[in-house]
Amino acid sequence: MAFWGADTDQLKTLSTKLQQGSAEIEKQKSALSSALIGTEWKGPDADRFRSDWESQHAANLAKIAQALEEASRQVSQNAQQQEDASHR
Hints:
By secondary structure, this protein is mostly helical. The chain is built from two helices and no strands.
C-alpha cells in the first residue's frame, strides 16, 4: 500500500520557516531602506539609485516576502486538511 499524504509536523515546521523567511526579508528591506535614507549621497546617481530602490528592489523584496507569507498559509492549510482527513 502506497503512502499518500504528509507528515503534518513537518508541514507545520515548513510553514513556520516560510513565515520566518518572510519576516526576515521584510526586516532586511526595512534596514536597507533606513540605511539608504541615512546615507549622505547627493547627485543624479543617488537620485537614480533611490528611485530604483523604491520602484524595483524594495518592491521586489516585498513581493517575495508576500509570496513566502502566502506559501506559509497554504502549507499550514494543507497540514490542517491532512490532519482532518486522518481523523475521519
